[in-house]
Amino acid sequence: MTTTAPGTPPAGRAAAPAAARRPAALRTRKLIPWAFLAPFLGLFVLCFVLPILYAVHQSFLQVRRHGLFGEEGRETVFVGFDNYARALGQDTFIDSIVRVLLFGVVQVPVMLGFALVLALLLESASALWPGFFRALYFMPYGVPGVVASLLWGYLYTPGLSPIIDVAGLVGLEPDLLGPDTVLWSIANIITWLFIGYNMLILIAQLKTIPAELYESARIDGAGPLQIAWRVQIPLIRPALVLTSIFSIIGTLQLFAEPQIISKFTVAIDSAYTPNMAAYTSAFTGNDYNVAAAQSVIVALTAFVLSFGFLWLVDRKDRRR
Questions:
Q1: Which helix (H) or strand (E) holds 263?
Q2: Model confidence over 76-95: pLDDT tens digits?
Q3: Looking at the domain covering 90-319, what would its CATH class be?
Q4: What is the percent of the chain with per-residue pLDDT over 90, rounded to a whole number?
Q5: How far is Cα 142 from Cα 319, in angstroms, rounded to an integer?
Q6: Running DSSP on this structure, what letter comes out for residue 77?
Q7: Could you tell me which residue ranges the ABC transmembrane type-1 domain spans (predicted)?
Q8: E strand or H helix at 97, and its extent?
Q9: Which of 138, 320, 313 is nearest to 242 (CA)?
Q10: CB within 8 A of 26, min separation 6: which ones?
Q11: Which residues contact 276 (CB under 8 A, 6 or more apart)?
Q12: pLDDT tens per residue across span 98-130
């Protein structure tokens, strides 16, 4: 027979409050990660989501002024997709989209190809001073795009460029700022800036490959080229996809480099790229609603191309 001391609650009553406290503790623990994420989520919504929603909202509106100079007032009206029709009806805007797509088709594979080769060379067993060369190749990324464009602009200008002077010694007269070549001169600037950045992403992925895989490949008689093709490149496929997506989006965002190079040549007009066309519509034509529509079109194009690329990659993986 058991006895209970006076004033001591039965065991069942003591367990009940403890069991009631457990769900509250679990709920508190689940809220802790959201508390850490709250500052980021707040800034993300404020600086990213809300501006996008505002741009989409503005793309469906139009400001109509009454009177010869708008002295009789103005009103904002809903016009549906009229701004999109006006944007797509501008030949210069369509030409700018085609231009950057051509730019990306050529420049992105070249840039990522160089970045991949550099990453593989620096992570090879026979690489000398890999830390020094990683920093050296990454250094151009530390130069702001505006400064890099100014530097290259002078290197492209006849009479100032040592490149053109040296080419003249062997009988060549390159026109690096001409209508047919200025796009590829800009591509050279972008490639020079971002090879090191993409190289570091690929190197970070290469460092996750276990050393045992390399040893097994060498035991099987694989040489450096076979190891790179059959071991390293397949295993860094996620990093290659990531850098490709970043490069596709960056291509459609091209703005600062052609804007600066336009000061050195007449071959670049105010709507040379989609972002330049939207900027011109907003701050030269004072048509902010059409500029918003152009911005939304550029964003949708980047979305379609990025997810189209991911779909193709996933489709190939499923076939394998």
A1: none
A2: 899 999 999 999 999 999 99
A3: mainly alpha
A4: 72
A5: 41
A6: E
A7: 97-309
A8: helix 91-122
A9: 313
A10: none
A11: 96, 255, 258, 259, 270
A12: 999 999 999 999 999 999 999 999 988 778 898
